[in-house]
Amino acid sequence: AQKITQTQPGMFVQEKEAVTLDCTYDTSDPSYGLFWYKQPSSGEMIFLIYQGSYDQQNATEGRYSLNFQKARKSANLVISASQLGDSAMYFCAMREGDSGYALNFGKGTSLLVTP
Amino acid sequence: GAVVSQHPSWVICKSGTSVKIECRSLDFQATTMFWYRQFPKQSLMLMATSNEGSKATYEQGVEKDKFLINHASLTLSTLTVTSAHPEDSSFYICSARDPRLAGSGEQFFGPGTRLTVL
Asked: Which residues, including other chains, have CB under 8 Å from residue B28's CB and lie 6 or more apart?
């Protein structure tokens, strides 16, 4: 079964606007971590933001914020004030259990920021 | 953040040859590294977990005799694709966790290796 679901294969947003990328997850482990990575065309995976299952507040990192709704098992990424350089693939990922475990990735969302 | 390097960044080889990819943690010691494979326009799929000083743990469906992993030191893991075939052409990317960073378990990814088998 798919553990991470990203239902938006592609998204468009105009420069300076905000955009929300959806992510839902499935786990029975009470301890887990949720990550968002950006992958530009060069292929490198760039860490954006992290949310722990026990964190009370939504994570924020600059223009990135994570809308964590635990009961709904969703961890949407919000990018504010989009920039042309934000055009890339965005992957949501989950770590289950302690921090030694690998990540399960969603299928990704391709974001295109237009002028 | 912590730095992970990979070498080579790209490689083209003939079918039947073996290719070694190196993954290094440059400024931290990583007891565990992970190897992922990404086909074009697809997500990253975990191939194996590389443990320093012990055998790697492979995911279901990944042939351990074809994808040899060696984690000989705390800063180096290697992935050898043996007798490569065109269907092995893919983007291979490694990651490592910096144990100095408590809590998140954030993984740092190498820049990836693009393998093309002719």
From this structure: B2, B75, B96, B98, B99, B100
- pLDDT < 70 regions, chain B: 1, 102-105
Given the structure tokens 């482990």, which residue do they identify?
A29
- Report which of B45, B51, B58 is spatially closest to residue B90, judged by C-alpha positions: B45
| Chain-chain contact of B103 with A52 (C-beta, under 8 angstroms) | yes
Could A45 and B95 be called an inter-chain contact, meaning their C-beta atoms sit closer than 8 Å?
A: yes
DSSP alpha helices (H): ranges in B44-115? none
Cβ atoms B31, B51 nearer than 8 A: yes
Residue B53 C-alpha from the chain's centroid: 16
Tokens representing A57 are 């507040």
User: In this prediction, what percent of chain A has a pLDDT beyond 70?
Assistant: 97
- Chain B residues near residue A37 by CB distance under 8 angstroms: 109
